[in-house]
Write a structure and sequence with these properties.
Elements (H helix, E strand, L loop, with lengths): L2 H13 L10 E5 L2 E6 L2 E3 L5 E3 L1 E3 L2 E5 L10 E8 L2 E6 L5 E5 L5
Antiparallel strand pairs: 1-2, 1-9, 2-3, 3-4, 5-6, 6-7, 7-8, 8-9
Length: about 100
């Protein structure tokens, strides 16, 4: 078998493996609280559907007026496929996990 054929077979095998999320999109949980990011849109822990500043590995928004902490900036950074650090203003980061692990 030629080298090109072997590399082609290897590429097919690798492409058949399950994909892992490398984006912040999805549902995130901490205790009883949760939020969901879909591109630039978020359903906040308070249940509001708003837009924020989306980056594949991060997200920021300002807490809406009808939620606790209104006006505070939230900054989220994707650490790995299952973990996000969420910072409220100048507070220490909170560690959130995917509600349903990616497989």
């Amino acid at each position: 078998m030629s080298r090109a054929a072997i590399l082609g077979c290897f590429a097919l095998l690798v492409s058949a493996l399950p994909a892992h999320a490398d984006a912040i999109d999805g549902q995130w949980c901490l205790g009883a609280s949760h939020f969901e990011i879909k591109g630039p849109n978020i359903r906040t822990p308070g249940g509001n559907d708003i837009s924020g500043n989306y980056d594949r590995h991060g997200f920021t928004y300002v807490i809406p007026a009808n939620e606790e902490g209104a006006g505070t900036q939230i900054v989220m950074v994707l650490l790995n496929e299952e973990t996000v650090h969420l910072t409220r203003g100048t507070s220490a980061p909170e560690t959130w996990k995917r509600c349903k692990p990616v497989s």
